[in-house]
Every structure is written in structure tokens, then in C-alpha cells.
Amino acid sequence: MSDRNPGGPLDLAQLRTFLAVYRAGSLTAAARLLGLSQPTVTAQLRSLETRMGRQLFERLPRGVAPTAAADDLASRLAGPLDALEAVAGGGRLEREVPEPPVLLGGPAEMLAEMFVPALAPLVAQGVRLRIAMGLAEDLLTGLRAGRFDLVVSAIRPRGRTLIAEPLADEEFVLVASREWSRRLDSRLLARDGPAALAGVPLISYAGDLPILRRYWRHVFGVRLDGEAAIVAPDLRAVKAAAVAGAGVTVLPGYLCVRELAEGTLVRLLDPEDPPINTGFLVQRAGARPGPHVRLVRDRLFQAARAW
After folding, report:
1. What is the DSSP string of 282-307?
2. Which among 136, 150, 158, 276 is least buried, having the fewest CB atoms inside 10 angstroms?
3. What domains appear along the chain, each with residue ranges and CATH number?
4. pTM (global) more than 0.90
């Protein structure tokens, strides 16, 4: 007979163990964080899977991988369990354990250019960082499920499970190499708009030209129709192609400060109302951030203000 009991309450200790395994990515690491033996962690997970009638993790040669059922359960558990830990004082273990690594997610270009150099000095204070880079929606899903402590996001999340604070405004600029800027008459561009760019190759980080389309719509008031000469899914590669003279592109201002100062890129227009995108620093609602998470959070805001 199975001990599955869908109508009864789930065991809180098993749920805590599940969330620890989900966040740590391995039974061994979770056992160490919980102060339990690995066989105990394994037994609790198996019992929880039996009660739920679902497999929560796939066992890998090194660690475990969450199933879709685990992603769903973690997204519903993370906030309430973190809030419960905050009420209970946050500590289950009598012995002191070191601060865990701070799990930070965000867009690759912004983290690499603006924030990782500013966070580096925290290592001397004992802070450990685990950085993941990806798309905003994927990172916010991971944050809800407890895979991250902090996420830098180009979009403001919806709902009450996450708290978003404005972090930095990024201005988009229309740029090209010095050689292309000499061929293009900035006065003609200001007067005729995109007609002055007819036939000029475009460089984009995606095939549907999202940043370019937004710039055309906001500054020129027209829809951009066309195809990029180069598509590279990393704005740093887009910048490199523009510096090399491949054509015209639109970049966040923070990413090309050095190139504009050196003259390897030239701002083609200086509109009174440039397109601006706000980046947010996002945390889970009800989470009780540890000292190192607070250090990282403060340093991110300091770095944003410096830019």
C-alpha cells in the first residue's frame, strides 16, 4: 500500500528539505546546509515525492536537476518558507555556518560592464558570488523559485511575490564607426531622419531588431522595416561589429562610454528625448536577506549611481 495521501497536509520538514535541495542543486550540499545526513535528506525527498505522486528531481552523476513539478512547487514555497524563517529567527542550526554565496542574476552586458567590477572588492570581505546571466523572464522565474537572491531586470515584474526597485536608467544611442559617421551627414539625418540611413547596414542583437525598432519609433516616429546585416545575441558583439565598421546600430549608453570618448564610435544623433529603459533590482517578497546579500545590494546601487 502506498503512503501517498493527497488530502492530508504535507510535512513542513520535508518541504524545507525539498527547497534546500532545489536551491543547492545537490543532496550533499543541502544536507550540509540543513545539518542533516545525506540518507535523511534522500529519505525525506522520496517520502515527499511519494505523497505528491510526482518526481521532483532527476538524479544526475553530479547533483540533481529539478523537474517541472519541482519548479512549480518551489515557486509556491519560496516566499512563505522564507517568511517563516524570518519570523523564527532564520536559524535552525545551533552551530555557526558560513554565509552562503550570493546568487545574482541579470543581463550579461549590464552585469559585465557596470556591476561585476564594482562587486569584486567585496571578495576581500568574505563575500562569495554566483552569477547567472540570461533573459529577464527566465531569471525572474528562477528568483520566484528561490534560485537567486537578487536579479537585475530590464522589466518590472508583475504580482506580489517579487519586489522591484528602480536601479538605473539606460539611454539608447544611435552609433556607428568614425568612417561611417563621415559618410553620413548628421544635419541631414536630423532633418530627414531614417531616410538618410537608406542602404546603411544595420547591426542587431536579435533578428526582429527590437532596440533599433524602438529607437526608430521613439525618435523618428516611424516603423523600421528591414533586415540586419549582422545579428549577434550579445550587445558586446554588436558593439564590436559597429567599431569594426560593419554599419549602424543602437546601444545602451553605458556600454559604449569608452568607445565614444576614444572616437572609435560616434553618436550620430543627440535627440532631446532619447529612448530610456529602466533597470530594476528585484528580490523575493518576504525574503530575509543575509548580511552578504545586503552588501551586494548596496554595492549595486552605489555602482548604478556612479554610472
Report:
1. EEETT----HHHHHHHHHHHHHHHH-
2. 158
3. 12-88 (1.10.10.10), 102-169+278-306 (3.40.190.10), 170-276 (3.40.190.10)
4. no
